[in-house]
Amino acid sequence: RAKEQGKNKYQIYHSGMNLQSYRTFILQNDLRKAAEREELILHYQPRIDAATGKVIGTEALIRWNHPSWGQLLPSEFIPLAEETGQIAGIGEWVLRKACEQNKLWQNEGLPLTRIAVNFSPLQFLQKDLIRIINQILTETGVEPEVLEIEITESAILQNENIITKMLHEIKGMGITISLDDFGSGGTSLSTLKNIPADIVKIDKIFIDDLSVNPSQGTAFITSIVSLAHSLKMSVVAEGIESEEQLNLLKKLGVQGMQGFLFSPPVPPAELDSLLNRGLPEQFTYKSKIEKEV
Ligand code: C2E
Ligand code: MG
Ligand code: MG
Ligand code: MG
């Protein structure tokens, strides 16, 4: 009957899907059209330099303005895009859009900041990835030194040899590489030794731990910082929500700070003033912290 009505997808729903798989099914279909309908957007979260309190970079984070379900977060649709192979196209769109936005900020005369883009492990399996990155940098006029590619520690493990090789090529282009969600991905020290990362981004669970269990939290951060520094990598903390966490992280030698304490990810227009003027008064914490230390 549904076939007669030309509504195959609802037929599939009625024949026994639960609500979750119904939603997944609809989203997978809708995602195919999302890019051309301009429903995908990027928000940006600032990264702050611990020493100066200035914005040193932004991280592009994708959102999907779904016509019936409102704004969806990447956790709901990136895995679907990975399953259906759409991640290659979406990843390319994200990279181009983020570079274009960074160039817009440059053209507005704002201080030069780095642009960090999250990559799915599947993107590293694209044979033409290097060519695509080169092409996007050329087309948008963004210098490779301005671009940072974030990959999670656990993602690398899915295809360690190919991804590590690709990361070496990317690093060779002058692009910065950061290891996202560091500490929770189960990388062995020998793997870490082979990954040409410039930055480790400490996973939010360790930042949360600073509040829940300060002595254990401090021990973990201390060992991550010392490991990173001995491998000549710098350290960024993500998910900072309180001044207490910030103060501790600064004391422990963390250089880059991201979190709701400074700003959630926001549409690009909302970041203009932050990039321009630096942080609002309450976050001119440099002198405050230095007095405490
Ligand atoms: P991520 O790269 O580790 O990004 C950090 C996530 O933590 C973001 O969630 C961000 O909104 C959130 N966050 C930042 N500061 C705080 C804080 O202080 N408190 C709390 N509670 N959360 C904070 P979001 O935007 O939902 O992204 C989730 C993940 O989705 C990202 O984790 C990244 O792995 C992935 N992702 C986002 N954009 C893209 C993309 O364009 N491509 C790919 N492949 N993955 C993406
Ligand atoms: Mg990230
Ligand atoms: Mg992360
Ligand atoms: Mg994450």
Automatic annotation (TrEMBL):
The organism's superkingdom is given as: Bacteria
Query: Which intervals hold domain EAL?
Result: 24-279
Tell me the protein's name.
EAL domain-containing protein
Q: What is the lineage of its organism?
A: Bacteria, Bacillati, Bacillota, Bacilli, Bacillales
